[in-house]
Amino acid sequence: SCTYHLTSSGNSYAFFDFWNRQDLLIDGQGAIIERAINAPEKGVLAFFQSQNITLKNLTIRGGKATTGYGLGGGLWFFRTTARVENVKLLNNTANTGGGLQVEHGDSQVTLVNSVLADNVAQEQGAAIFATGGMTIQNSTIVDGSGNPLFTYPGNTHQTLKVTSGTTAIYGGGGNATSTGSLSWGNTTGLT
Questions:
Q1: How far apart are CA 31 and CA 171, in angstroms?
Q2: What DSSP state is assigned to residue 147?
């Protein structure tokens, strides 16, 4: 597989911002995208007002969204529908949503056969911070930052569904905090 080191970026929210995209497929074919140690403090990929996005077969690591908005160290979705399949989000950091951020009630993200590990949030959601809809299937979430793995301050119109063999191992911050609707089914390590 190929490794891409992100060293600089322009005036954007993340290293790569995608605005108003429709039916976009990004198949990394096993590639690794990582932020270089001395690169600007930004998340790796951000999708804004986009529909039917598919990300698959990709590793995203080392994102550091701790300046500016500080959202989504690995991935940030705003008013976007997306499927994230066979993706590893590793060692990413953000103010909220260390691994990924799903923002706005119009968003719906499905995470399938993926791994989130060793992500850190300085405020909330070491692995995931979601204010939009989120479904997690057959995925593994391992974090030890002391923050809850999931932070879901959703409303009654959105649901976080965690199903189909998902495993979560946490490092002391608790598994989930929520003011929205949570649905747990066929999971390991989630309460």
A1: 28
A2: S
Class of residue 20 by CB neighbours under 10 A (exposed 0-12, middle 13-18, buried 19+): exposed
Among residues 60, 176, 190, the alpha carbon closest in space to that of 129 is found at 176
Q: Residue 127 pairs with which residues in a beta bridge?
A: none
Q: What is the pTM of this model?
A: 0.84
CA-CA-CA-CA torsion for 36, 38, 44, 48, nearest 10 degrees? -150
Alpha-carbon radius of gyration of the chain: 15
Residue 123 parent element (H or E): strand 120-124
* Owner of token pair 């930052």: 145
Mean pLDDT by 10 residues, the chain (191 residues): 90 93 97 95 96 98 93 96 98 94 92 92 87 86 63 51 56 44 44 37
* Alpha carbons 59 and 152: distance in angstroms, whole number: 24
Q: Which residues of 44-76 are buried (b: 16+ CB within 10 A; e: fewer)?
A: bbbbbebbebebbebbbbbbbbbeebbbbbbbb
